């Protein structure tokens, strides 16, 4: 009985533990995050109830609290009101005390009430799943029955898995270190391009750029295993995808800038800025900086990052370096200026559609007269933007 009902070898026990924790990760990313918090998909009631039961057993997290805290995070990201921003609280605080920050935020009943709309509120939720201690205690008994004394270790791994990987790594490193595909208005980063270990949540910058998208991967070389499971559930008619981030359509033959162009540019602004960084900033930075220096590639990469960054989030050192780059190259200064002007078009919330259209037409006309080929080519491609269907 010391080895439990299954009597597994050590390596079998390891594989089972990894499998169990992976189910928990999938439950968090598919059910809690994408379905509940962002309404990016709807799940069959049987699937939803399985995820709710599993999370009750393996995490003790209450759906309405988790959803409310996550929605608050998006609403107040990187501010003093963000429940877990490493930019405000420090990386060590969020990385190692993420679970404590979650519990502290959950005590704010006004926060939970305000941001938890649409979450389950049935008899099971109120009378069973809201009793966290009961669920995790039952999981301990099940693990001991199945795996014997080693079941205590299995249970301990299950209990720390989400507090470390989700509350610590995603909320911490996901806003501190990594690469960025999109200029989202926060510090969110992609920790790794292959979202397997944490169910696709590694692609955190992509998520903050398109919060309501059920798919977190954006580039062809990125992989989101959570999306793979969603596609499987959809194939089995156990899920229905409501929203994914669609790339804009570009009609190369279109020359006039009309309301459809404006709509596409505004709706797909994250792709517009990403394309600007790739098609304008990158080649111009390499051409301007890589003229004589042996280490020009490193300098060009640094310049690209600074030129594509949100200036409000640059520290004093980075800001000084950016100013130095802009003073040395009038061409880069022009490219930087036109990026800011383009971004400012969709930032004019109180401006009429006609005024925004005129501003975009003026931007394209003047960009094509700069004599900077990459900027001219980008402007011509911008004329062909159409909303994705």
Compose a concise summary of this entry.
With 389 residues, the chain is mainly α. It is 62% helix and 4% strand. It folds into two domains: 10-241, no CATH class; 250-386, no CATH class.
Tags for this entry?
389 residues; 2 domains; two-stranded antiparallel sheet; 6 strands
SSE order and pairing:
Layout: H1 10-37, E1 41-43, H2 45-58, H3 63-75, H4 86-89, H5 91-106, H6 109-115, H7 123-129, H8 132-147, H9 150-172, E2 194-195, H10 204-209, E3 223-224, H11 225-235, E4 239-241, E5 249-250, H12 259-267, H13 269-289, H14 296-308, H15 316-328, H16 330-345, H17 353-367, H18 373-382, E6 385-386
Parallel strand pairs: 2-3
Antiparallel strand pairs: 1-4, 5-6
Helix pairs in contact: 1-2, 1-3, 1-9, 2-8, 3-6, 5-9, 8-9, 13-14, 13-16, 13-18, 15-16, 16-17, 17-18
Describe the protein:
This protein is mainly alpha-helical and 389 residues long. It has 2 domains: 10-241, no CATH class; 250-386, no CATH class. The protein is built from 18 helices and 6 strands. It has helices at residues 10-37, 45-58, 63-75, 86-89, 91-106, 109-115, 123-129, 132-147, 150-172, 204-209, 225-235, 259-267, 269-289, 296-308, 316-328, 330-345, 353-367, 373-382, and strands at residues 41-43, 194-195, 223-224, 239-241, 249-250, 385-386. The strands form 3 sheets. It has a two-stranded antiparallel ribbon with strand order 1-4. The protein has a two-stranded parallel ribbon with strand order 2-3. The chain has a two-stranded antiparallel ribbon with strand order 5-6. β2, α10 and β3 form a beta-alpha-beta unit. α1 crosses α2 (45-58), α1 (10-37) packs across α9 (150-172) and α2 crosses α8 (132-147). The radius of gyration is 24 Å and the shape is elongated. The N and C termini lie far apart (60 Å). The model has no long low-confidence stretch (mean pLDDT 92).
């Amino acid at each position: 009985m010391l080895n439990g009902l299954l009597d597994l070898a050590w390596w079998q026990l390891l594989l089972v533990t990894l499998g169990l924790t992976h189910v928990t990760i999938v439950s968090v990313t598919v059910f809690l995050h994408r379905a509940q918090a962002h309404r990016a998909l709807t799940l069959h009631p049987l699937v939803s109830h399985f995820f709710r039961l599993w999370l009750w057993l393996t995490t003790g997290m209450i759906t309405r609290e988790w959803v409310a805290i996550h929605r608050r995070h998006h609403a107040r990201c990187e501010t003093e009101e963000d429940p877990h921003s490493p930019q405000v609280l420090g990386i060590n605080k969020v990385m190692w005390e993420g679970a404590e920050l979650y519990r502290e935020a959950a005590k704010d009943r006004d926060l939970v009430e305000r941001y938890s709309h649409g979450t389950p509120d049935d008899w099971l939720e109120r009378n069973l799943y809201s009793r966290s201690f009961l669920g995790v205690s039952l999981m301990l008994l099940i693990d001991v029955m199945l795996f014997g004394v080693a079941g205590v270790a299995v249970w301990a791994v299950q209990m720390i898995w989400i507090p470390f990987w989700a509350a610590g790594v995603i909320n911490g490193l996901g806003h501190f270190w990594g690469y960025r595909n999109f200029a989202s208005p926060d510090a969110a980063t992609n920790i790794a391009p292959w979202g397997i270990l944490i169910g696709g949540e590694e692609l955190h910058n992509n998520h903050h750029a398109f919060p309501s998208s059920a798919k977190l991967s954006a580039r062809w070389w990125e992989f989101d295993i959570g999306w793979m499971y969603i596609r499987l559930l959809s194939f089995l008619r156990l899920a229905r995808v409501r929203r994914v981030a669609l790339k804009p359509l570009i009609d190369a033959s279109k020359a006039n800038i009309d309301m459809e162009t404006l709509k596409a540019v505004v709706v797909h602004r994250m792709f517009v800025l990403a394309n600007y960084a790739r098609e304008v900033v990158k080649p111009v930075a390499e051409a301007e900086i890589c003229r004589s220096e042996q280490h020009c590639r490193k300098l060009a990469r640094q310049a690209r990052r600074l030129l594509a960054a949100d200036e409000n989030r640059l520290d004093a050192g980075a800001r000084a370096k950016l100013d130095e780059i802009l003073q040395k190259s009038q061409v880069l200064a022009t490219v930087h200026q036109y990026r800011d002007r383009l971004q400012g078009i969709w930032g004019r919330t109180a401006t009429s559609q006609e005024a925004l259209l005129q501003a975009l037409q003026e931007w394209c006309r003047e960009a094509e007269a700069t004599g900077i080929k990459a900027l001219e080519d980008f402007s011509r491609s911008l004329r062909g933007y159409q909303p994705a269907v």
